[in-house]
Amino acid sequence: MSKIGTIFRRELSSYFTTPLAYVFIVIFLVLAAVFTFQVGGLFERGQADLQPFFRWHPWLYLVLIPAVSMRLWAEERNSGSIELLMTLPVTMWQAVAGKFLAAWCFAGIALLLTFPVWITINYLGSPDNGAIVAAYVGSFLMAGGFLSIGMCMSAATRNQVIAFITAALVGFLFLLAGSRSCSTSCAP
To answer: What is the pLDDT of residue 150?
Structure first.
């Protein structure tokens, strides 16, 4: 377990040594607020819930999570440091688990920073906090799903841009496969 923890710490700290982490978090928070309050019409709905907030999360993750995961393996292969990583006394699954957990923790930190929206909803009314907690857990798990797609695409190429585009495309296909069309499910 200590090998996974070492890789986890290395990867998580690498996010915060570059501006990528701060840019990602600011963009995620701003877009989440805009989609919740402006586009989602939270105040016009007259209900104290976070339905507009969580309705837009798959679309935010579709663009932002591949940006986080595109560098995980593609950068290692491009810089040549994957050879060094593979010569260390670390198995492949330990390297994959450490990198995945670091990226997932980073996405979780960004998600936790949205708690002021939850506080705002509790100030405005009496929402079902159990449903909100369940939606946060679901959103965190969805981020893990998008991360796994992104890691797979990052491992398949040396180029980070190609990893980003293919991860967004595959994530979009999964998002479409999971969405319901109103023509089939909204019929009386």
So the answer is: 93
